[in-house]
Amino acid sequence: MTSVSYGQTNLLKGWETNTEKALIELSEFKKGGPPKDGIPSIDDPKFITSDDADSWLAF
């Protein structure tokens, strides 16, 4: 394993961890996912019965 490189410092900012014990090279990690507040809240949820849901849920 190698120590944290310059490009990885932002990825680990605020973490208190020993990167020498990493099982996966930190360079393999990629940023992703929605940005902060990128998933809207459900302000007006619609509820249905479990029987109604059975018609469109696949098991």
Compact summary:
The chain has one helix and no strands. With 59 residues, the protein is mostly loops.
List the helices and strands and how they pair.
Elements: H1 50-54
Polypeptide structure, described:
8% of the residues lie in helices and 0% in strands. The chain is built from one helix and no strands. The protein has one helix at 50-54. The model has no long low-confidence stretch (mean pLDDT 78).
Task: Give short descriptive properties of this protein.
elongated, 59 residues
Assembly level: single chain
* Number of helical stretches of at least 4 residues: 1
Termini separation comes to 43 Å
Class inferred from helices and paired strands: little secondary structure
Major beta sheet summary: none
- Order of SSEs, N→C? H
Regions with pLDDT < 50 over 5+ consecutive residues?
none
Mean pLDDT: 78
What share of residues are in beta strands? Answer: under 5%
Query: How many DSSP-defined strands?
Result: 0
- Based on Cα principal axes, name the global outline: elongated
Rg over C-alpha atoms, rounded to the nearest angstrom: 21 Å
Helix content: under 10%
